[in-house]
Amino acid sequence: MLNIKYFVISIAAIFIALGIGMFIGFNMNGQEIYFKHQEALIDSLENRFSEFKIEKELLEQNIQQITIENNKKDNFIEKVYLEVISERLLGINVGIIQTTDQFYYNNIRETLENAGALIPMEIVYTDKLFNVSESYIDEINLVYQLDLVGRSDWLSYVNHQITGYVKSGEASHFIVELVDNQLIQVVTYYDDLTVYPINQVVLAGGHISEDKNKPNMIDIDLINRFRENNLPTIAVERLDVGYSYISYYKQATVSTIDNVNTKIGEISLVLVLNGADGNFGEKPTADELVPSVTNIEE
To answer: Rounded to an integer, what distance in angstroms lies between the CA atom of residue 293 and that of residue 208?
Structure first.
């Protein structure tokens, strides 16, 4: 009986030992496989990192080359700029109307004067004009015997008065009222504007953020009024405006320039005022970068 019990215990011990050995062996093999997998993963990452490093170096080289080429182009444009625009606008009097005070468009006047144009006046619409109170409109109605109701009527009447001012060169009492209350800014460069009648208008717009009412209420209404008074209008904006008005201007069928704050945009502006027609610039709404060569020829 003891021999059988001893035999059974011995057999059990042998199987337990075998089990323990198999377990240890499996773990050792598993660890070896795991370590090999980790080594392969690390090697793969190192290889990929090396590839990324090479790609980064190539990209930096490409960027540097593109920058060099752009600088060459910019230098070339700077050198031919005055040659291209010089005296192209002799005999043309241009009024500059800026429908926003959120951006600087000071370069427009300098560009046009470099091209030989005269700039009798510049007008800037301030944000205050768009946001006047109902009580102020009521005061205007009382003083000027008007019947304006709400913002739409107000802006329409402002545009009517601005159009008359641009056309005649004579500021009404209402225009003086707007200036005195800092609702618009007016700069005139000649004592008697009637001697320098406006031939064409440059309308500069755009906004920091989306505002679908403002372009229709102010810009498009102005364009239509100028058209009715035989004042050709070119609509422009900076390349960096937050909300572009170009699509609105295109619907109003006027020529547009969306990068007027660049040398290329300034050249386009002069050429359009000189007779070119189209939508120029660098944004998706542009049809061409600049007017075609045929528009540059004398």
So the answer is: 34
What is the distance between the alpha carbons of residues 107 and 263, in angstroms, rounded to a whole number?
Answer: 10
pTM: 0.77
Cα dihedral across residues 176, 111, 274, 237: positive or negative = negative
Q: What DSSP string describes 42-53?
A: HHHHHHHHHHHH
Q: Which residues contact 157 (CB under 8 A, 6 or more apart)?
A: 146, 148
Distance CA 118, CA 120 (A): 6
Question: Look-up: residue for tokens 């002799």?
Answer: 90
Domain-by-domain residue ranges, the chain?
Answer: 1-85, 91-295
What is the DSSP pairing of strand 94-98 with strand 200-204? parallel
Question: Packing angle between helix 150-168 and helix 134-144, nearest 10 degrees?
Answer: 50
- For the stretch 174-229, pLDDT in tens is 999 999 999 999 999 998 999 999 999 999 999 998 888 899 999 999 999 999 99
CA 222, chain centre distance (Å): 22
- What is the CATH number that goes with domain 91-295? 3.40.50
Give the ranges where 86-103 is alpha helix by DSSP (H): none
